[in-house]
Amino acid sequence: MIVIKDTIDFIKRMRRLIREDRYLFENRTYDGLDYVAVLLEDFMITPDEAIEHLKTLNSNMWVLDNMPDYKSSGAFIFKKTINKVLAYIKLNIEYDENGEVLVIISFHRDNK
Length: 112
Prior knowledge:
There is one protein chain. This protein is an alpha+beta fold and 112 residues long. The protein has one domain: YaeB-like fold (2-Layer Sandwich), CATH 3.30.2310.40. It has 3 helices and 7 strands. The strands form 2 sheets. It has a 5-stranded mixed β-sheet with strand order 1-7-6-5-4. Strands 2-3 form a two-stranded antiparallel ribbon. The radius of gyration is 13 Å and the shape is globular.
């Protein structure tokens, strides 16, 4: 089970990876839209602005993932209000040939 310490450690690693430009948006669609269109439609922000919002996440914004379906990987979910809309943000740290990389799995309007 994930505890607050795990979340704080994840956030520290996430911020380091952002500083190192080691992040990517998962190539997924949400309601038929790619992530760029979702960010614009739901929050009126660009991908670069979304990254700036990730930098401000903290452990109080973390929520337990009741349906972990992303590669059974222990992804972290955060909820944050952006432009008066509650965002659902699912993140994971994975590995490629160059080491750790932050994967932005989901970043869309919260449905709950």
